[in-house]
Design goal:
This protein is mainly alpha-helical. It contains 9 helices and 4 strands. The longest helix is centred in the N-terminal third of the chain and has 23 residues.
Length: 252
């Protein structure tokens, strides 16, 4: 079997055939696919822009990963709040009926099952030193907690005692986490006002694909089981009224 209609806010690997090249991305542009798509992408792009400002004063390198400041702390708070907003959007635009007051990172972990967040890799090309691949959700593969998210929570609830935990490394991990979440919903679509362009492939200076905003690079999951792949012809499916499915998170 395979999945013959895309789920809301969920990209997946795609089976060959069925107009696959077009079908594997075109559904993301459908306004029924996700509510206020550009709203979430814009929030990420603003956070990315503010991270770039921090890099004007702190070099992204191994020597600087423990640097901390009020500006880093502030951006970490915004980033993780945005991460939680994306988690909630994914859950509530599918089938999920848990009381919102009970939402926490353990519930958000359900989304790793559907989006393979733990299989993403992120690269920061301007990193000064040996290339690092950031895998913000990889700990979930071993059922371990996310250190960067714990640092965020600790510094949020007791900034005086945990101020140093809101450091540059925690910030980069959190921004990478937000990028993974955005990419797992919208791939590389930024919903700009311009017309679609035909991409020309060729030699590339960096590994991985350019991510939304063209500041990071990203590696998408390649560990989808055959039954978890999308398999539809969007040229035909887009003509139907009922063209999307809802994943049942209550069953996980």
């Amino acid at each position: 079997m395979s999945i013959t209609k895309p789920y809301h806010r969920m990209i997946r690997g795609f089976k060959p055939g069925n107009n696959a090249s077009y079908s594997s991305w075109a559904y993301i542009r459908d306004k029924e696919y996700a509510r206020a798509s550009s709203h979430y992408v814009r929030a990420f792009l603003l956070i990315q822009k503010d991270l770039q400002k921090i890099f004007e004063y702190i070099e992204p390198s191994n020597e600087s990963i423990h640097a901390y400041s009020y500006r880093i702390h502030e951006l970490l708070m915004r980033t993780c709040i945005e991460i939680e907003a994306n988690f909630k959007a994914i859950l509530y635009e599918n089938n999920f009926n848990t009381n919102p007051k009970k939402l926490n990172i353990d519930i958000y972990k359900k989304i790793d099952t559907t989006h393979h967040l733990s299989s993403y890799g992120v690269m920061l090309p301007i990193w000064n030193g040996e290339t690092r691949i950031w895998k913000p959700f990889e700990a979930w593969k071993a059922n371990d907690p996310l250190d960067w998210y714990q640092n965020y929570n600790a510094s949020k609830h007791d900034r005086h005692e945990n101020f140093k935990r809101a450091n540059l490394e925690t910030l980069i991990m959190s921004v990478s986490g937000l990028l993974v979440l955005i990419s797992s919903q919208f791939r590389t679509e930024d919903f700009s006002a311009g017309s679609d362009m035909v991409a020309v492939s060729g030699y590339d200076y960096y590994d991985m694909e350019p991510a939304i905003g063209s500041f990071f690079r990203i590696k998408f999951p390649d560990d989808w089981a055959d039954d978890d792949l999308y398999d539809f012809d969007w040229q035909q499916l887009k003509l139907e009224n009922d063209r999307f499915s809802k994943f049942n998170y209550d069953a996980l």
